Amino acid sequence: MGLSVYADIRYANWIIGEESAISGVQLKLTPGEETKDAFCREIKRLPALQAYSEREANLHNLVNTFVKMQDTIITLIIIFAGIIFFASLLNTTLISLAERRREIATLQVLGYTPWQIGGFFLRESMTLNLVGTVLGFPLGYLLVWYMTIVYNTEMFRFPLVMPASVWIKTLSAAILFGLAAHALVQREIFKQDWRDALNVKE
Questions:
Q1: What is the CA radius of gyration of the chain?
Q2: pTM assigned to the model
Q3: How far is 12 from 17, CA to CA, in rounded Å?
Q4: How is 98-145 classified by DSSP, letter by letter?
Q5: What confidence tens digit (pLDDT) does each residue in 126-146 have?
């Protein structure tokens, strides 16, 4: 991140045609507040020093501004994606439930409980859910890879990091949203009047 670059001092001198040209110095201090305070007192006595930056302070500022902002944006994206996922899965299952009312009523007459009937729909919806999620993994990876290329500028670059926890969290979220959608479907199964569904329409 930033426009700074690092080079061997001999190579840098050869590039700019000067001898012993130094534009910056990196120091590693012994951990401790006393060492840091003593160092700060000493560099204040250097009139030729133009700027001083501390790595920990830079990281702290970066986390408090950019990283937290990205966390907020990602959280909102996940929430909206989850709502769309939940609504589409619920809508598909409810349509299937409405189209198979007589079939469900027949199962109830044969002695199946609403929980057993709901289990059929749960297995069906979760199978579609998991297949769609797994097929979406490579598409999501390609989208993130494309975003890292788009945001690759002179000021900063984003490395593509996809740890196993990301895939596990995605799969877990898909299962949770699927179970939440099925809870509403199960309620509809309990509310269904199987006698009315079996009546022959004249």
A1: 31
A2: 0.63
A3: 8
A4: HHTHHHHHHHHHTT--HHHHHHHHHHHHHHHHHHHHHHHHHHHHHHHH
A5: 888 888 888 888 998 998 899
